[in-house]
Amino acid sequence: MNLFSLLKVINYAFQIYQWLLVIYALMSWLPGARDSALGRFIDKMVSPYLDIFDRLIPPIGPISINIIIALFVLNLIQRGLITLLLALLG
C-alpha cells in the first residue's frame, strides 16, 4: 500500500466518523430516532468519544455544544495525523 492510498483510507475513516457525529446530532431532533436499531448503532459508535467532552464541558441547559467541539477536535486530529504521516513517510 503506497502513501497516497494510506492517506486516503485514513481520510475516509475520519470523514465517516464525522458524518456519524452529525447524524447523531440530527437524531436528537427526531423523537425516538435514537431508539431505532440504526440510532443504537450510531450511539454505540460515537458515545465513547463524546463522553470525553461530556465530562469536560457541561451542557448549558438543554443545549450541548459538545458535538461541535468534538467535530473540531476530530478535524484537528485528522489534520495532525496526516501531517505527521506525510513527514514520517514522505
How does this structure look, described?
There is one protein chain. The radius of gyration is 16 Å and the shape is elongated. The protein has one domain (about 5-90). Helix 1 crosses helix 2. It has three helices and no strands. The chain has helices at about 5-25, 35-55, 65-90. It is mostly helical and about 90 residues long. The model has no long low-confidence stretch (mean pLDDT about 90).
- Unreliable segments of 5+ consecutive residues: none
Largest β-sheet summary: none
Computed Rg:
16 Å
What is the domain total for the residues? 1
- Quickly count the helices: 3
InterPro entries: CCB3/YggT
Keywords: Membrane, Transmembrane, Transmembrane helix
Protein name: YggT family protein
Transmembrane segments: 12-30, 63-89
Provide a quick synopsis of the model:
The chain is mainly α.
Question: Helices and strands in order, then pairings?
Answer:
Blueprint: H1 3-27, H2 37-56, H3 66-89
Organism: Facklamia lactis
Pfam family, one: CCB3_YggT
InterPro entries: CCB3/YggT
Any key phrases for this structure?
single chain; 90 residues; mainly alpha; 77% helix
